[in-house]
Amino acid sequence: MSLRPPSVDVVLRHDAVAVLVAQHGRPRVADAIREELQAARTALGSAGGGAQLVTLERIAAGVGARLQEFARSSLRPVFNLTGVVLHTNLGRALLPEVAVQAMQDAARQAVNIEFELDSGKRGDRDRHLEALLQRLTGAEQATVVNNNAAAVLLALNTLGQRREVILSRGELIEIGGEFRMPEIMKRAGCKLVEVGTTNRTHLKDYEQAIGPKTALIMKVHPSNYEIRGFTKTVDEASLAGLAHRHALPFVSDLGSGTLLDLRQWGLPHEPTPAELIKAGVDLVTFSGDKLLGGPQAGLLVGRGELIERIRRNPLKRALRVDKLRIAALEAVLRLYEDPERLAQRLPILRHMTRKPAEIETQAQRLLPAVARALAGQARVAVANCESEAGSGSLPSDLLSSFALAITPEGDKRKATARVDALARACRALPVPVIGRVRDGKLYLDLRCLDDEAGLLAQLGELKPAPGEPQGSGPG
Ligand SMILES: *Cc1c(COP(=O)(O)O)cnc(C)c1O
C-alpha cells in the first residue's frame, strides 16, 4: 500500500490480472494497465495531500473494468420499440431464421458462389437468385448489388453515361443521407433533363424532351413523400409506350419494392416489380432490406440485354454482394413462393400485420412489471399510438398500435430533462431499449417486441436518472 503507483510488471503478476491475460491477451492487458496507472498518477497529482491510497487491488479492478468496456462490441443488439418497423439506423429488416441459418452455413464453408458444379468451370454469382427473381417478377434476367442506391447508380452509369436522362421534377427526390437524384445522375456521368413541374408532369413533357442525346426515360417511386392536390403523373404503361416508340429504355427506381400485393394482408397497395415489368418497364431497381424483408441489397430486374450490359460494367464488380447476402436473399425469396405462410415466417410482414388488439394485450401483460421497475420515478400506462413502416416505405400510412407510455414523476419544469434522462437510462440497459419521446412521455411501441422475456429480465437494471432526487430505487 503506497501513494506511489506500482509498476506494470507488478500489476501483471497480480492473480486477478493473470486471469485477464488469459481472456484478453497480454498486449491488450499491458496497455490497459498503463492507462489505469496513468489515470492513478493524474488523480494523485490533482488530489494533492489528500490522495487516495493506490492499492494493487484497486488498480487491478480498474484494469478489469477498462478491459470489459473495451471488449464489448460496438455493434450491439437493441430492442427497437420506436414504432418504426424498418428503422434504417437500427438496421432495417430482421431476417427470418431460415436466412440466418443459410448465412451461417455459407459463412462456415466453401460454397459454389461462382463455380458450376456440372462443368467445373467458373460460374456467375447472379445465377443463384435469377430463377427465383424471374418467377417472382416476370423479368427476363436479374442481378444484385450492394444496395438500391448502388443499383440506381449502376443502371444510370451503364445506360446513360455521357447522355441525357429524362426525369419529372416531381421525382427529384432525396432519400436521406447524401442520396439525391440530381447528385447520383452527376456521379453516374449522366445529364439530368428535368421535365414538368413539382406537382404536374404530362406525357407531352417527356415527349418534347426526347432528343438525339437521350439515353433513357426514368421514373422514381415517391417512396418517402406524397404530393397531394392538383397533381398529374404519367403511368408506367404510357411512359413505356413513349420510350419504346423512340427505341429508348424505360427505367423505374421502385425504392422499397415488395414482391407481392400487400392488400392480401390488409396493408396499402405498393407497386410491385412484377406489375411494372408487366406494364412495359425495361429495368426495375429495388431494395432487399425494405418491405422485401431480406438483407441489404439492390436488385435489378428487367430485359436480358440491359442486365447483360450492366453485368459487363466494371462498377458491377465494385458493387457486388458476397456469399452471405446471396445466401440470405435466396432463403428470403424462397419464402415468397408460399404467400399463405409468409406473414408468419417473414419478420417484417409479421410485425407490419400484427393486430392492434394483440399488441394491446401484450402491453397490459408487461405493464405491472414495468410500472414496478419504475415505481417512484415514473408513471406507466398503456396508450394508443401509431407505428410506421419506415425507410421510406408506405410513407403516409400509419399502423394503429399500442405502447407503454412512461411519464417521469416530479415537477413540470424539468419534465423535458427528466424524460430525456429516462430515455438515456433505457438506452444504457445491457440490451438497450430504444423508444420514442413525444409530449413529455417516453413511448415504447410494442409492435416489434418479440423477446418479451428478455425485456423483462433486464428491468431490474434500469438505473434511476442521475441527479434526480430519489425516493425509492428501481424495483
Ligand atoms: C430507399 C430508396 C433508395 C435507396 O435504397 P437503399 O437500398 O437504401 O440503398 C433508392 N430509391 C428509392 C426510391 C428509395 O425509396
Characterise this structure.
- The protein is an alpha/beta fold.
- The chain folds into three domains: 8-71, no CATH class; 79-88 and 350-461, Aspartate Aminotransferase, domain 1 (Alpha-Beta Complex), CATH 3.90.1150.110; 97-342, Aspartate Aminotransferase, domain 2.
- The chain has 19 helices and 15 strands.
- The protein has helices at 8-12, 15-24, 26-47, 56-71, 97-108, 127-137, 148-160, 181-187, 203-209, 236-245, 273-278, 304-312, 314-319, 323-335, 339-345, 347-352, 356-373, 415-427, 452-457; strands spanning 79-80, 141-145, 164-168, 174-176, 179-180, 191-195, 214-220, 250-255, 283-287, 298-302, 378-390, 393-408, 433-434, 436-438, 441-445.
- The strands form four sheets. A seven-stranded mixed β-sheet has the order 2-10-9-8-7-3-6, sandwiched between helices. Strands 11-12-15-14 form a four-stranded antiparallel β-sheet. A two-stranded parallel sheet has the order 1-13.
- β14 and β15 (441-445) form a beta hairpin.
- α2 (15-24) packs across α3 (26-47), α3 crosses α4 and α5 (97-108) runs antiparallel to α14 (323-335).
- The longest helix has 22 residues, at 26-47.
- The chain is globular.
- The two termini are 39 Å apart.
- Residues 467-475 have low confidence and may be disordered.
- Bound molecules: pyridoxal-5'-phosphate.
- Pyridoxal-5'-phosphate (PLP) binds next to α7 and β8.
Rg: 28 Å
Number of helices: 19
Q: How large is the share of residues in beta strands?
A: 15-25%
Q: Which blocks of ≥5 consecutive residues have pLDDT under 50?
A: 467-475
Assigned CATH class of the largest domain: Alpha Beta
The set of bound ligands, ions and cofactors reads: pyridoxal-5'-phosphate
The percent range for helix content is 40-55%
Name of the CATH homologous superfamily of the largest domain: Type I PLP-dependent aspartate aminotransferase-like (Major domain)
CATH topology descriptor of the largest domain = Aspartate Aminotransferase, domain 2
- Whole-number mean pLDDT: 92
Q: Distance N terminus to C terminus?
A: 39 Å
Tell me what the CATH architecture of the largest domain is.
Answer: 3-Layer(aba) Sandwich
The geometry reads as globular
Strands, count: 15
**Which structural class do you get from the secondary structure elements?**
alpha/beta
Number of domains: 3
Q: Sheet with the most strands? A: 7 strands, mixed
Strand order of the largest sheet: 2-10-9-8-7-3-6
